[in-house]
């Protein structure tokens, strides 16, 4: 039986990569709702792939007025909201020697502040008993050069799942976090010259304990579990979905 029948979900960054993978798995399980991003072209293409189940909302998750509009529009279209996926994030590469204050603010705005306020602005429209899913990263656990700001923000996101769950106990809204390892998305492609992408992916697959890099559907299926009643006893938890790369590679 479909696990998310009649659930209404909002997925930030649902127009690309992991977010789109989550939206596709949610759709397969009967959910409806909204995907949120800034790029009109990828929003339109994702929306076409999802049929009429998810509306596309053009908004910047670092802008609090935009976030208020996202949840108001979704609630007006579908009624109350059951599931929030704070997925939009990324970028923020640089060593401590060459990072500027502006780089710092940009990294934290996208990877931490936006997550906090996505949840805050969703709350007035969320059903009691709903599910909040945050997307962290295995970079919170493993040292990588040039990833200190990104990893620090993602480590804080892991705490937010616990803190939010504590704040929302009276409403029985559960917050949990998925920490993906290397996953095959357009973000991954951005760091590698086009002609080397296949070779680099092959190399990564070779060093991954499980023998392949992650796919957005791997994260999507985990998000279905956290959105569904199957995980009703889980709050403040982290699910590491990394093919073993964090602790076994
Ligand atoms: P993509 O670049 O494919 O997708 C990122 C998404 O976030 C896009 O849909 C983008 O849409 C959206 N986004 C970015 N900035 C904003 C903004 N200011 N406002 C609204 N939307 C925004 O990346 P991934 O799918 O790889 O990443 C998704 C999440 O997974 C991120 O949080 C990332 O840190 C995390 N992650 C990814 C891993 C990987 O290996 N791919 C590993 C671990 C974690 P638009 O450009 O239209 O705004």
UniProtKB/TrEMBL annotation:
It comes from the Bacteria. Pfam families: adh_short_C2. Keywords: Oxidoreductase. One of its GO terms (molecular function) is oxidoreductase activity. Belongs to the short-chain dehydrogenases/reductases (SDR) family. This is SDR family oxidoreductase.
């Amino acid at each position: 039986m479909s696990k998310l029948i009649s659930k209404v979900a909002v997925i930030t960054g649902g127009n690309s990569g992991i977010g789109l993978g989550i939206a596709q798995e949610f759709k397969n399980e009967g959910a409806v709702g909204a995907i949120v991003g800034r790029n009109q072209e990828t929003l339109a293409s994702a929306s076409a792939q999802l049929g009429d189940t998810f509306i596309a909302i053009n908004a910047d998750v670092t802008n609090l007025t935009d976030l208020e509009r996202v949840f108001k529009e979704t609630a007006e279209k579908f009624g109350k909201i059951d599931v929030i996926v704070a997925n939009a994030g990324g970028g923020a590469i640089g060593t401590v020697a060459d990072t500027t204050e502006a780089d710092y603010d940009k990294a934290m705005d996208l990877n931490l502040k936006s997550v906090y306020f996505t949840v805050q602005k969703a709350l007035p429209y969320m059903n009691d008993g709903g599910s909040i899913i945050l997307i962290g990263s295995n970079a919170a656990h493993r040292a990588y050069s040039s990833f200190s700001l990104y990893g620090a923000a993602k480590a804080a996101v892991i705490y937010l799942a616990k803190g939010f769950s504590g704040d929302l106990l009276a409403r029985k809204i559960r917050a949990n976090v998925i920490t993906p390892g290397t996953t095959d998305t357009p973000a991954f492609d951005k760091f590698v010259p086009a002609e080397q992408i296949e070779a680099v992916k092959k190399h990564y697959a070779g060093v991954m304990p499980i023998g392949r890099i992650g796919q957005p559907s791997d994260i999507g299926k985990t998000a279905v579990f956290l959105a569904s009643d199957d995980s009703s006893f889980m709050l403040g938890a982290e699910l590491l979905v990394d093919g073993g790369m964090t602790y076994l590679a």
